[in-house]
Amino acid sequence: MTAPTARTGAHVLAEIASQPDCWESAAALAPDQRGLPEPGERVAVVGCGTSWFMAMAYAALREAAGHGETDAFTASEMPRTRRYDRLVAITRSGTTTEICDLLTALPTPSVVLTTGTELPAARLADAAVDLGFADERSVVQTRFATTSLALLRAHLGEDLTAAVADARTALRRTVTGLRDLQQVTFLGQGWTVGLAQEAALKARESAQLWVEAYPATDYRHGPLAIAEPGRAVWSLGPLPDGLGPQVTATGARVLGSDLDPLAELVVAQRFAVDRALAAGLDPDHPRNLTRAVLLP
Protein backbone atom coordinates (compact mmCIF):
# COMPACT_ATOMS: atom_id res chain seq x y z
CA MET A 1 0.00 0.00 0.00
CA THR A 2 1.35 3.44 -0.96
CA ALA A 3 1.92 5.80 1.91
CA PRO A 4 -0.15 9.00 1.76
CA THR A 5 1.61 12.11 0.50
CA ALA A 6 2.40 14.63 3.21
CA ARG A 7 0.28 17.74 2.87
CA THR A 8 3.03 20.27 3.30
CA GLY A 9 2.08 22.76 0.59
CA ALA A 10 5.77 22.76 -0.33
CA HIS A 11 5.26 23.91 -3.90
CA VAL A 12 2.87 26.77 -3.25
CA LEU A 13 4.86 27.98 -0.24
CA ALA A 14 8.04 28.12 -2.33
CA GLU A 15 6.19 29.87 -5.14
CA ILE A 16 4.72 32.46 -2.77
CA ALA A 17 8.17 33.10 -1.29
CA SER A 18 9.71 33.67 -4.74
CA GLN A 19 7.39 36.54 -5.66
CA PRO A 20 9.66 39.49 -4.80
CA ASP A 21 12.37 38.09 -7.09
CA CYS A 22 9.81 37.38 -9.82
CA TRP A 23 8.48 40.95 -9.66
CA GLU A 24 11.98 42.33 -10.00
CA SER A 25 12.54 40.17 -13.07
CA ALA A 26 9.22 41.27 -14.55
CA ALA A 27 10.01 44.95 -14.01
CA ALA A 28 13.33 44.48 -15.80
CA LEU A 29 11.60 42.78 -18.75
CA ALA A 30 8.77 45.29 -19.14
CA PRO A 31 10.50 47.95 -21.28
CA ASP A 32 11.50 45.41 -23.96
CA GLN A 33 8.11 43.76 -24.46
CA ARG A 34 6.51 44.33 -27.84
CA GLY A 35 2.79 44.12 -28.40
CA LEU A 36 1.68 45.53 -25.05
CA PRO A 37 -0.82 48.41 -25.17
CA GLU A 38 0.35 51.85 -26.16
CA PRO A 39 -1.04 55.03 -24.57
CA GLY A 40 -4.29 56.09 -26.21
CA GLU A 41 -5.33 52.64 -27.37
CA ARG A 42 -8.73 51.23 -26.43
CA VAL A 43 -7.92 47.92 -24.78
CA ALA A 44 -9.73 44.80 -23.61
CA VAL A 45 -8.01 42.57 -21.05
CA VAL A 46 -9.21 39.01 -20.52
CA GLY A 47 -8.46 36.04 -18.31
CA CYS A 48 -10.19 33.22 -16.45
CA GLY A 49 -10.33 32.82 -12.69
CA THR A 50 -7.21 34.32 -11.12
CA SER A 51 -6.10 35.76 -14.46
CA TRP A 52 -9.42 37.59 -14.79
CA PHE A 53 -8.87 39.25 -11.43
CA MET A 54 -5.41 40.40 -12.57
CA ALA A 55 -7.07 41.74 -15.73
CA MET A 56 -9.49 43.73 -13.57
CA ALA A 57 -6.62 45.25 -11.60
CA TYR A 58 -4.64 46.17 -14.71
CA ALA A 59 -7.65 47.70 -16.44
CA ALA A 60 -8.31 49.99 -13.49
CA LEU A 61 -4.64 50.94 -13.20
CA ARG A 62 -4.31 51.71 -16.91
CA GLU A 63 -7.34 53.98 -16.99
CA ALA A 64 -6.31 55.73 -13.77
CA ALA A 65 -2.88 56.38 -15.29
CA GLY A 66 -4.53 58.11 -18.26
CA HIS A 67 -3.38 55.55 -20.83
CA GLY A 68 -6.82 55.01 -22.33
CA GLU A 69 -10.13 53.22 -21.98
CA THR A 70 -9.55 49.70 -20.69
CA ASP A 71 -12.15 47.02 -20.04
CA ALA A 72 -11.64 43.69 -18.26
CA PHE A 73 -13.67 40.56 -18.96
CA THR A 74 -13.65 36.92 -18.09
CA ALA A 75 -12.87 35.45 -21.50
CA SER A 76 -16.19 33.68 -22.00
CA GLU A 77 -18.17 36.89 -21.40
CA MET A 78 -16.29 39.40 -23.54
CA PRO A 79 -18.74 41.05 -25.97
CA ARG A 80 -17.41 40.05 -29.38
CA THR A 81 -19.11 42.90 -31.21
CA ARG A 82 -17.19 45.67 -29.43
CA ARG A 83 -14.25 47.24 -31.19
CA TYR A 84 -10.88 47.49 -29.44
CA ASP A 85 -7.43 48.49 -30.62
CA ARG A 86 -5.78 45.68 -28.69
CA LEU A 87 -6.63 42.51 -26.78
CA VAL A 88 -4.49 41.47 -23.80
CA ALA A 89 -4.95 37.88 -22.60
CA ILE A 90 -3.48 36.42 -19.42
CA THR A 91 -3.21 32.63 -19.22
CA ARG A 92 -0.71 30.64 -17.17
CA SER A 93 -1.25 27.34 -18.97
CA GLY A 94 -1.54 28.86 -22.44
CA THR A 95 -4.17 26.23 -23.20
CA THR A 96 -7.35 27.60 -21.59
CA THR A 97 -10.22 26.89 -23.95
CA GLU A 98 -12.04 30.20 -23.56
CA ILE A 99 -8.85 32.20 -24.19
CA CYS A 100 -7.90 30.20 -27.28
CA ASP A 101 -11.44 30.44 -28.66
CA LEU A 102 -11.41 34.22 -28.24
CA LEU A 103 -8.02 34.64 -29.88
CA THR A 104 -9.23 32.52 -32.79
CA ALA A 105 -12.49 34.42 -33.23
CA LEU A 106 -11.37 38.05 -32.94
CA PRO A 107 -9.35 39.97 -35.55
CA THR A 108 -8.18 42.43 -32.88
CA PRO A 109 -4.37 42.73 -32.51
CA SER A 110 -3.53 40.60 -29.49
CA VAL A 111 -0.82 39.92 -26.95
CA VAL A 112 -0.72 37.02 -24.48
CA LEU A 113 1.02 36.82 -21.12
CA THR A 114 1.79 33.15 -20.55
CA THR A 115 4.55 30.69 -19.60
CA GLY A 116 5.96 29.76 -22.99
CA THR A 117 5.98 31.04 -26.56
CA GLU A 118 5.29 27.53 -27.90
CA LEU A 119 1.93 27.25 -26.12
CA PRO A 120 -1.35 27.33 -28.12
CA ALA A 121 -2.47 30.75 -26.88
CA ALA A 122 0.94 32.24 -27.66
CA ARG A 123 0.82 30.85 -31.20
CA LEU A 124 -2.66 32.26 -31.75
CA ALA A 125 -1.73 35.77 -30.59
CA ASP A 126 0.16 38.42 -32.51
CA ALA A 127 2.68 38.77 -29.67
CA ALA A 128 3.52 36.88 -26.50
CA VAL A 129 5.20 37.77 -23.22
CA ASP A 130 7.06 34.74 -21.87
CA LEU A 131 6.83 34.58 -18.08
CA GLY A 132 8.04 31.00 -17.88
CA PHE A 133 10.30 31.91 -14.95
CA ALA A 134 7.12 32.47 -12.90
CA ASP A 135 5.44 29.18 -13.85
CA GLU A 136 4.21 26.99 -11.01
CA ARG A 137 3.91 23.35 -10.00
CA SER A 138 0.98 24.04 -7.69
CA VAL A 139 -2.54 23.96 -9.13
CA VAL A 140 -3.23 27.19 -7.25
CA GLN A 141 -1.88 30.32 -8.94
CA THR A 142 0.18 32.75 -6.92
CA ARG A 143 3.42 34.01 -8.48
CA PHE A 144 2.41 33.81 -12.15
CA ALA A 145 -0.61 36.02 -11.54
CA THR A 146 1.18 38.61 -9.45
CA THR A 147 4.18 38.62 -11.78
CA SER A 148 1.90 39.28 -14.75
CA LEU A 149 0.42 42.25 -12.93
CA ALA A 150 3.86 43.43 -11.83
CA LEU A 151 5.04 43.45 -15.45
CA LEU A 152 1.95 45.34 -16.58
CA ARG A 153 2.36 47.87 -13.77
CA ALA A 154 5.99 48.40 -14.77
CA HIS A 155 4.94 48.82 -18.40
CA LEU A 156 2.63 51.61 -17.27
CA GLY A 157 5.68 53.36 -15.87
CA GLU A 158 5.39 52.41 -12.21
CA ASP A 159 8.54 51.96 -10.12
CA LEU A 160 8.05 48.64 -8.30
CA THR A 161 10.95 49.04 -5.88
CA ALA A 162 8.68 49.78 -2.91
CA ALA A 163 6.23 47.02 -3.87
CA VAL A 164 9.06 44.48 -4.00
CA ALA A 165 10.34 45.62 -0.59
CA ASP A 166 6.81 45.38 0.81
CA ALA A 167 6.47 41.84 -0.59
CA ARG A 168 9.57 40.83 1.33
CA THR A 169 7.98 42.33 4.45
CA ALA A 170 4.76 40.42 3.70
CA LEU A 171 6.66 37.16 3.77
CA ARG A 172 7.64 37.86 7.38
CA ARG A 173 4.14 38.79 8.60
CA THR A 174 2.52 36.36 11.04
CA VAL A 175 -0.59 34.62 9.73
CA THR A 176 -0.99 31.78 12.25
CA GLY A 177 -2.89 34.13 14.57
CA LEU A 178 -5.78 34.16 12.09
CA ARG A 179 -6.72 30.49 12.40
CA ASP A 180 -9.74 31.24 14.59
CA LEU A 181 -11.53 33.32 11.96
CA GLN A 182 -14.82 31.78 10.87
CA GLN A 183 -15.35 34.06 7.88
CA VAL A 184 -13.42 36.75 6.00
CA THR A 185 -14.60 39.43 3.60
CA PHE A 186 -11.92 41.02 1.41
CA LEU A 187 -12.40 44.60 0.25
CA GLY A 188 -10.71 46.79 -2.34
CA GLN A 189 -11.10 50.08 -4.16
CA GLY A 190 -10.18 50.89 -7.75
CA TRP A 191 -7.51 48.48 -8.97
CA THR A 192 -7.53 46.57 -5.69
CA VAL A 193 -11.10 45.31 -6.20
CA GLY A 194 -9.53 42.66 -8.45
CA LEU A 195 -6.97 41.87 -5.76
CA ALA A 196 -9.74 41.45 -3.18
CA GLN A 197 -11.50 39.00 -5.49
CA GLU A 198 -8.23 37.10 -5.92
CA ALA A 199 -7.55 36.98 -2.17
CA ALA A 200 -10.99 35.49 -1.62
CA LEU A 201 -10.47 32.94 -4.38
CA LYS A 202 -7.20 31.77 -2.79
CA ALA A 203 -8.92 31.11 0.54
CA ARG A 204 -11.81 29.29 -1.15
CA GLU A 205 -9.53 27.15 -3.31
CA SER A 206 -6.90 26.30 -0.74
CA ALA A 207 -8.77 26.14 2.55
CA GLN A 208 -12.47 25.82 1.60
CA LEU A 209 -13.23 28.85 3.76
CA TRP A 210 -16.33 31.02 3.66
CA VAL A 211 -14.92 34.16 2.13
CA GLU A 212 -16.43 36.98 0.11
CA ALA A 213 -15.10 40.02 -1.76
CA TYR A 214 -16.60 43.42 -2.60
CA PRO A 215 -15.71 46.96 -3.59
CA ALA A 216 -15.12 48.58 -0.21
CA THR A 217 -17.76 51.28 -0.45
CA ASP A 218 -20.37 48.73 -1.55
CA TYR A 219 -19.76 46.64 1.57
CA ARG A 220 -22.27 48.77 3.48
CA HIS A 221 -24.97 47.87 0.95
CA GLY A 222 -25.82 44.50 2.45
CA PRO A 223 -22.66 42.47 3.20
CA LEU A 224 -22.10 44.36 6.47
CA ALA A 225 -25.01 42.29 7.82
CA ILE A 226 -22.77 39.23 8.26
CA ALA A 227 -20.12 41.05 10.33
CA GLU A 228 -19.91 39.72 13.90
CA PRO A 229 -17.35 38.45 16.42
CA GLY A 230 -15.17 35.70 14.99
CA ARG A 231 -15.27 37.18 11.49
CA ALA A 232 -13.07 39.72 9.74
CA VAL A 233 -12.99 42.37 7.07
CA TRP A 234 -9.62 42.44 5.29
CA SER A 235 -8.82 45.49 3.22
CA LEU A 236 -6.29 45.51 0.39
CA GLY A 237 -5.50 49.21 0.52
CA PRO A 238 -7.11 51.96 2.63
CA LEU A 239 -10.70 51.63 3.81
CA PRO A 240 -13.25 54.37 3.04
CA ASP A 241 -13.61 56.93 5.81
CA GLY A 242 -15.72 55.65 8.67
CA LEU A 243 -15.97 52.03 7.54
CA GLY A 244 -13.34 50.67 9.94
CA PRO A 245 -15.13 51.86 13.09
CA GLN A 246 -18.44 50.67 11.66
CA VAL A 247 -17.04 47.15 11.22
CA THR A 248 -15.36 47.17 14.63
CA ALA A 249 -18.67 48.09 16.24
CA THR A 250 -20.10 44.76 15.06
CA GLY A 251 -17.39 42.82 16.89
CA ALA A 252 -15.68 41.78 13.66
CA ARG A 253 -11.95 42.31 13.17
CA VAL A 254 -10.50 44.77 10.68
CA LEU A 255 -7.37 43.50 8.93
CA GLY A 256 -4.99 45.12 6.46
CA SER A 257 -1.84 47.21 6.43
CA ASP A 258 -0.04 50.01 4.67
CA LEU A 259 1.84 47.59 2.39
CA ASP A 260 1.52 47.93 -1.36
CA PRO A 261 -1.80 46.15 -2.07
CA LEU A 262 -0.09 43.54 -4.25
CA ALA A 263 2.18 42.76 -1.30
CA GLU A 264 -0.87 42.59 0.99
CA LEU A 265 -2.18 39.92 -1.41
CA VAL A 266 0.96 37.93 -0.56
CA VAL A 267 -0.11 38.01 3.10
CA ALA A 268 -3.57 36.78 2.07
CA GLN A 269 -2.01 33.97 0.02
CA ARG A 270 0.00 32.85 3.04
CA PHE A 271 -3.14 33.02 5.20
CA ALA A 272 -4.98 30.75 2.76
CA VAL A 273 -2.19 28.17 2.77
CA ASP A 274 -1.84 28.28 6.55
CA ARG A 275 -5.55 27.68 7.01
CA ALA A 276 -5.47 24.81 4.51
CA LEU A 277 -2.60 23.09 6.29
CA ALA A 278 -4.25 23.64 9.69
CA ALA A 279 -7.35 21.87 8.30
CA GLY A 280 -5.33 18.95 6.92
CA LEU A 281 -5.92 19.98 3.30
CA ASP A 282 -3.46 19.94 0.41
CA PRO A 283 -3.05 23.53 -0.84
CA ASP A 284 -0.98 22.35 -3.80
CA HIS A 285 -3.86 20.23 -5.10
CA PRO A 286 -7.26 21.61 -4.00
CA ARG A 287 -10.19 19.30 -4.47
CA ASN A 288 -12.08 19.33 -7.78
CA LEU A 289 -9.48 21.57 -9.47
CA THR A 290 -6.95 21.06 -12.24
CA ARG A 291 -4.05 23.23 -13.33
CA ALA A 292 -5.77 24.18 -16.60
CA VAL A 293 -9.40 24.10 -17.70
CA LEU A 294 -9.94 22.47 -21.09
CA LEU A 295 -13.54 22.35 -22.27
CA PRO A 296 -14.90 19.71 -24.64
Give a written overview of the molecule.
With 296 residues, the protein is of the alpha/beta class. It has two domains: 10-159, Rossmann fold (3-Layer(aba) Sandwich), CATH 3.40.50; 175-278, Rossmann fold. It has ten helices and nine strands. Helix 8 (192-207) links the parallel strand 6 (183-188) and strand 7 (210-215). Helix 2 (19-29) packs parallel to helix 6 (143-155), helix 2 (19-29) packs antiparallel against helix 7 and helix 8 packs parallel to helix 10 (261-278). It is globular and about 55 Å long. The protein starts with 9 loop residues before the first helix and ends in an 18-residue tail after the last helix. One of its GO terms (biological process) is carbohydrate derivative metabolic process. This is SIS domain-containing protein. InterPro entries: GlmS/AgaS_SIS (IPR035466), GlmS/FrlB_SIS (IPR035490), SIS_dom_sf (IPR046348).
Helix content: 25-40%
Question: CATH superfamily membership of the largest domain, which one?
Answer: Glucose-6-phosphate isomerase like protein, domain 1
Average predicted local confidence, pLDDT: 95
Shape: globular
Q: Topology as H/E string?
A: HHEHEEHEHEHHEHEEHEH
Strand composition percent: 5-15%
Question: Do you know the CATH topology of the largest domain?
Answer: Rossmann fold
> What is the β-strand count?
9
Instruction: State the CATH class of the largest domain.
Output: Alpha Beta
Give start-end ranges of low-pLDDT stretches. 1-6
The strand line-up of the biggest sheet is 2-1-3-4-5
Radius of gyration: 19 Å
Biggest sheet details: 5 strands, parallel
Proper CATH architecture of the largest domain: 3-Layer(aba) Sandwich
Alpha-beta content class:
alpha/beta
Count of domains: 2
| Spatial separation of the terminal alpha carbons | 35 Å
- The number of distinct helices, counting runs of at least 4 residues, comes to 10
